[in-house]
From TrEMBL:
Domain Protein kinase: from-to ranges: 1-228
Species name: Drosophila albomicans
Keywords: ATP-binding, Hydrolase, Kinase, Nucleotide-binding, Nucleus, Phosphoprotein, Serine/threonine-protein kinase, Transferase, tRNA processing
One GO CC annotation: cytosol
Name of the protein this chain belongs to: non-specific serine/threonine protein kinase
Amino acid sequence: MTADIIKQGAEGRLYLGDFKGESCLIKERFVKKYRHPELDTQITRQRMKAEVKASSRCLAAGILAPRILHSDLNTHKLYMEYFGNAQTAKKFIQDTVAAESDEEKVKEKLLELCIRIGAIIGQMHANNIIHGDLTTSNILINPNPAAKNEYDVILIDFGLSHYNQGAEDKGVDLYVLERALLSTHSEQKYIFEYILAEYRRNCGKDEEVVIAKFDEVRARGRKRTMIG
């Protein structure tokens, strides 16, 4: 097997390679020298297992996520489906804003994306899947000429994910997304509201409880920010 590195981040490296003849993305989590070796191994394995489980649960629920082709806990590598023509939702939004000077037209173009993201996160929470790191960098926009809207929305990077029926964790998931959007897309504050509106239509019977918890989490976060 050959592999070419395409990205390196704080958590690991991404390679383009193949697995049993299929092109794939290889995610390698490298050793964190600042952690005790046993703790580092434990955390790395937990996150790898979380990614495998979440991907499987999403796909079973009809939510697009990379198929995990193979996981190797000894080498800390995950072999997963590769979307070669995809871009992140972060870049999609930034490019849309840069290409259009009319704010109302920008809103109109981003509305469809927000609706689809909100629906997907709602479906994910309805199936009790908590992502743990919802940002526009962890959402892919993958061209699909056969699709009604000509692209698929795919969730990625489930290393912090888990399964939980509780409203608290779902509320925290939403709060993480809101903070990420305000940080990355500060001029488009409406994006989260668009997403949240569609989320509420898709998150299931616990909608009111989850939203109430989200409001509580948001209030706690604002209080911490004020106090410092």
